[in-house]
Design brief:
Keywords: Membrane, Transmembrane, Transmembrane helix. By secondary structure, this protein is mainly alpha-helical. It is built from seven helices and no strands. The protein has one domain. The protein is globular, with a radius of gyration of 19 Å. About 11% of the residues have low confidence.
């Protein structure tokens, strides 16, 4: 049974409606095993989801994050230049907490909601913008490098998926999910031990930190394959179009993680 390392994609509904002419990210046909949520209501007037729906909703979400992020980053640079780190930390923590709460609501309530997804994107824009503004002041040019790096990884993994260069098999799925879980445990352990003054070396900019960031980037990149596969199957299954917002939210969570890891890695390399 296939599933996804991204919790958002585990809750997509199934539909008994035929996919008809709606094409997915890739062409092979098949069902959508692994979706445990209730089926879409019978007789729903909502048309089946298409690739265009996913692209448009994901583009809108990403656009909100970029716009809010750029504005916040410019503001954060001004604050950091004036040595006013308090407001920056407030924006960073506030954006992170709001984004976390919204993501939990979307995931556990299984809400395919445009307003909630865009609100999550805006919150992540504040969070990422505040961090990026400080990094950009310390390492000029790092923001553009991180954005281009994230975009490049996303495009490469989409091409890899579409061409079938790497097949999303049950074995690969289990490996990626296990890797994501292992990384999450290490991050949590590093955070908790750091509170007691214990340095695991995972985030201090040293050699181990560089290797750890590279591993995280690799896992995040391969997670896109699972995200694409789940979205593709949902399209072919004919789930309602409104769930394109749910797919967009899932892709955004992976993009946010990937961007943060690339930004962190670049800061390590430029500090050498």
């Amino acid at each position: 049974m296939r599933t996804s390392s991204n919790p958002a994609f585990r809750n997509l509904p199934t539909s008994t409606a035929a996919a008809g002419p709606y094409a997915g990210f890739n062409q092979p046909q098949g069902g959508v095993p692994g979706y445990g949520a209730p089926q879409a209501p019978a007789g729903s007037a909502d048309r089946p989801m298409t690739v265009d729906d996913v692209v448009m909703k994901t583009g809108a979400s990403l656009g909100v994050t970029l716009l809010v992020g750029i504005v916040t980053a410019i503001w954060a640079q001004g604050q950091a230049a004036a040595d006013a780190m308090g407001p920056i930390m407030g924006a960073m923590i506030g954006g992170m907490l709001v984004g976390l709460v919204l993501s939990l609501i979307i995931i556990f309530k299984q809400l395919a909601s445009g307003p909630l997804t865009l609100a999550y994107s805006a919150a992540e824009g504040v969070f990422l913008g505040a961090i990026t503004g400080v990094f950009e002041l310390l390492f000029p040019g790092i923001a553009l490098q991180a954005v281009l790096g994230t975009a490049a990884v996303f495009v490469v993994m989409l091409v890899v998926y579409k061409t079938g260069a790497v097949k999303v098999t049950p074995k690969l799925t289990k490996w990626i999910i296990g890797a994501v879980g292992g990384v999450a445990v290490l991050m949590l352990a590093n955070l908790v031990l750091g509170l007691f003054g214990v340095n695991m070396g995972l985030r201090d900019g040293g050699g181990l930190a560089i290797v750890f960031s590279l591993v995280c980037i690799g896992i995040a990149a391969f997670s896109f394959l699972l995200d694409f596969d789940m979205a593709d199957k949902a399209i072919r299954e004919g789930v309602p179009a409104k769930f394109a917002w749910y797919v967009a939210f899932g892709l955004m969570t992976t993009l946010v993680w990937l961007y943060l890891e690339i930004l962190r890695l670049l800061s390590y390399l430029q500090s050498e």
